[in-house]
User: Fold these one by one.
Assistant:
Number 1:
Amino acid sequence: MKLTDKISWLMGRVQKSLFPHLDECFDTPPTEQEKRLVSILEIVQVEKYVSNRTTYQWRGRKPLDRQSLARAFVAKVLYRIPTTSDLIRALQATENLKRICGFSAIGKLPSEATFSRAFAEFAVSKLATQAHDSLVQEYLADELLGHISRDSTAIVGREKPAKKVKVPKKTTQKRPAC
C-alpha cells in the first residue's frame, strides 16, 4: 500500500470515528483547522514521547501536565503562531483549542514562563525528532525511497584559455590577363 493510500485510509478512520463524538464535546462546532489539528494529534500521538511526571518530590508545587503542553506545541506549529504569548492569547480566546490541547481540566492556563520552559525541554529531548522518526518507522518501514540531488552552481576554473594559433593565410596570386 502506498504512503498516500495509508494516510488517506488513516485520516478516513480518524474522521469517521472521532469527529461525530467531537462535535458533542464542544459548545461551538469545531472549525476545519481545529479538525485538522485533532487529526494530526491523533496520528502523531505526541503524548507517547513526553514523560508525564507522576512522581514528584513532596516539597514544592506539582509539575504541570507536560502532555497538554506538548499538544499546545503541535498547535503552535500548525497554526503558525510565532510567539508563546500569541499562543496563550489564542488558547484564551478559543475554548475549542483550549479543550483540544487538554487545558480544560486545569482551569487556568500556565504562564508564559512555564510554556517556554516546557518548549525548551521538548527541544532538548528532541520531541519532534522522536515523533517524526516513529512515524517514518511505522508507516514507511517497507517503502523504498529514492531521491536525486543535483548541484547547479557554477564552478570557477583557474585555467587560462588556450591561445589560438593563427593559421597563416595562403596568398593567392592573380593570374595574368590574357
Note: The mean pLDDT is 77.
Number 2:
Amino acid sequence: MTMSSSTGETKVVSLYQSQKKIYAKEVSGRFNRIRWFMVFFTQAIFYGLAWVPWNGRQAVLFDLGARKFYIFDWVFWPQDVLYLAFILIVSAYLLFFVTAIAGRIFCGYACPQTVYTEIFMWVENRFEGDRAARMRLDQAPMSWNKLWRKGGKHLSWVLIGLWTGFTFVGYFTPIQTLAQSVLTLSTGPWETFWIFFYGFATWGNAGFMREQVCKYMCPYARFQSVMFDRDTMIVTYDGERGEPRGGRKKNVDAKALDLGSCVDCSLCVQVCPTGIDIRDGLQYECIGCSACIDVCDTVMDKMNYPRGLIRYSTENALEQHWDAAAIRKHMLRPRILIYFAVLVLLVGGLFASLALRNPLRVDVIRDRQVLAREVDGRYIENVYKLHVMTTAETTQRLRISAEGMADIAVARGGEVLVEPASTTTAVLAVRIPIDTAKPGSHPIRFNIQSESDSAIRVSEKSAFLVPR
C-alpha cells in the first residue's frame, strides 16, 4: 500500500509481515518425558490398531463400500448415525471439562498436530543438530553437507507422512489387502489419492506450518477463553518472584542487585514451539506444552534457586499465594462438578445404550404388487417383504411367527437364514381362514426370533388386509 507523507514523499507500507521461522530448542525434563510418552501411546494406538485381528476381520474398520463400521464386537450401520452424534457430543463435553480444569493440556500433549510436530522436530534435530546448528545451516550456502542433511530430513518426513497416510486409509480399506495392493502398485484411485493427500498434509502441517496451524487455523485457540476462568490451571510465570529480571553470576546475591529470580536467559522463548514469551502473560498462542517449565527449572537448578518460577498454576493462586492443596480445593467448583455430572450421564447413557442394543432389525413392508387374495377356497393370504439386518457376527437362523388375528399363520417363508453382520430380504406369506375377520385392514404383529440366541428377537407391527 502506498502512503503520502506531509512532505509529499510517497512511502510503500507492507500490510503483510512474513512469518519468521521458529527454531525451537530441544528440552529435557519431567514434562517432556510425559509428552513423549503421549507420543508413543497415541501413535501405538493409531499405527497398531489397524493391524489387530478380531473375529476373523480387522478390529477397527470403517467399510464404506459395505456400509458397515466395525469397532471390536460392535457393528454399526448407516442407521446408527445417532451413535456417532452421541460420541461427538461426549468428546466435545470431555474437551470442555478438561479445558476448564487444566487449560489447553490436550493441545500440549495429545493433539495430532503437536504429536507429529514433536516427531518431525526430533527427526530434524537428528539430521541438522540443535537450534544454533539449524540456524547456521539455513544461513549457509548450498553445499554437500547442507544437501544431504536437508535431503535426509525431508526424505524421512515424506516416509513418515506416507506411512501415516497408508495407515489412515487402512481404517477404511482392510489394511492387509491395502498393503498387498501397495506392494503390487495396484491401489485404486481413491486409495492412492488419500494416501498421498494425508501424507502430504502430515508433511506440510508438521514439517512447515507447525505453530501456524495452532495460531491461525485451529478454532480451539480462539474459543478456549470461554472455557477458562481464574481457577483454570495454566502455564504461568510468577512475575512477583521473577521481576525485575536481569543477568547475574551464579554466586551473586540477587537481592543485593535488586533483581528477581529470572536471569533473563530467554531459554523459555527458545524452547517454545509457538515462539511466545510466557513472561508476557497468558496468550492464546500458548498450547500448554510446558517446555518452558522444564527449561526454566533447569536454569533454577543451576542457579540454586527454588523451582517453579514458571509452573502450572492459576491466576487466583498466583495473586493469593495459594499452595497446592488450596489449588486442588478450588478445582472442585460448581462449574466443574456440573460438567463432570453431565459427562458421567452422557458416557453412562452411551455405554448402556450399546450394551442393550438389539443386534437384530427388521423392516416389514407389505408387498403392494401382490393383492390380498383367496387361496384354495379356504384362506385369505397377504404377502410381505421383510428386510432383515443383523449386527451379530454369527450366522443367525430366524423363525418368524404372526399374531393379532384368530388362526393367523405363516404359510411360507417362516424361516430365514442371515449371514453374519449382513442384510437379507425374505418373502413371507401369511394366511387366515375365510370369514375369520371382517373386510378391511387389521393390525397384526410379526415376531422374529433367533434359534441360537433367545436374546436376539424383535417384534414389528404391520397390517393384514381382508378384501371385500
Note: The radius of gyration is 33 Å.
Number 3:
Amino acid sequence: MPAEPFWKTKPLAEMTPSEWESLCDGCAKCCLVKLEDEDSGKLFFTSLHCKLLDGRTCQCSDYPNRKKYVPVCVKLTPEIVATVDWLPQSCAYRLVHEGKDLHDWHHLISGDREAVHRTGFSCQNRTRTEEGVDDEDAFDYVIDWFHGPRQKPKKKYTLKVGRK
C-alpha cells in the first residue's frame, strides 16, 4: 500500500520548503487586490493584480525579490494561513490547514499544472495590473468568482410581443 502524501501526514508547520512551495496550485488569487469596507470590515476581491504578476501565466515575475518591489506582499506562513480570511476556499494551504484534501484538479493529485486554469479556478487571463488604476476606481473591478470558477452568465430571456 502506498504511503500517504505529505499534505495528509504533515501539518503545514512541519513541511519542508519544497513541500510548502509545491502546495501552491498556481491560481494567483492571493495576488489580487482586495478592498476592505472600513465600516463593516467586509472584504471585496477585485480583478486587479499585483504589478509583478503575469496574468497569462499566473506567475510572479520576481518571486524571490517580490517584497523588495511590493512591500505589502504577504509571504504565506502556517501562522498567516491560520489567521487570514482572504485565501480562496480552493487554496491548498487553506484546505490542508482545515484538514481537508486537495481538489482533484490540483497538480499534486492530477499531475497537471494546467488543470487549475482549465477548470476555471485560477486568474489566468481574467485580470489586469493594478498599475494605472486610481484607488477610487478599484471598486469597478470587484469580482464574484474569487472562491470558485467563474460562473457562466445566466441566460437572459426577451419577451417577444406581437408574434403569432
Note: Residues 145 and 151 are 7 Å apart (CA to CA).
Number 4:
Amino acid sequence: MTAAEPVVRLAQRRDVPRLAATLAAAYPDYRWTSWAFPEDGRAQRVHRWHELVAGLAGVDAQTTWVTDDCAAVATWTPPGDPAPAADLQAVLDRDLPKVFGSRHRVVQATDRIAAAGRPETPHWWLVSAGTRPSQRFAGLSRAVVTPVLDRCDADGVPAALAAYTSGVVHWAEALGFVVTQSTRSAVDHELPVWTLVRPPRGA
C-alpha cells in the first residue's frame, strides 16, 4: 500500500502562527538566512518575515498553500505581482525594513539581481517553501508547490524561483525548473544566487 497523499489547501488567517513557525524552523542553517538577517534577534526576525510575507500577504492574496497540519508551506507571488491592500502594504513598508535592519538594502539589491533571470512574460514566483524538520523526506514540499505548478501547466505560464544553495537548485530541477542565471549577491558577493524557471508542461 502507498501512503495517503497529504491534504493540501490554501492557508487561512488562523494558520499564520503555525505556518510562520514551520518556515522559520525549516532551514535553521540555510545560508541565505544568516546572510540576510542581522545576528541580533535573528530568530525573531526570520519568524516575523515569514509571518508578514507567507502569512499575512500570502493569505490575503490566497497564494500560500499548506498541508492541513501546516507541516509544509509554500508561498507564491502570482503573475503581474499585484500590490497588497493599502493597509497591508503599510504594515509591510513599516516592518520589513525593521526585520532586515542593516541588511535591508543589500537584500533588496540582491532581489533585483535574481529578478534579472525571471521570465519577461507573466509567471508565478515561488517566494518560499519549507517543511518541518521532523517531517522531511515525505514529499510534503513537493505536495504544497504542486497546486501552482498544475495551474501553471493548465494556464500555459511558467514558474520561477531564486535559490541560494545547490541543494535547493537540485530540488527545483527535480520539479522541472531550469537554471537561467547564476550570479552572486549584491555588494558583498558572498552568496551564490541562482534563478530557475519551469516552463509549463505541454507548452
Note: Residues 8-198 form a domain with the Aminopeptidase fold (CATH 3.40.630.30).
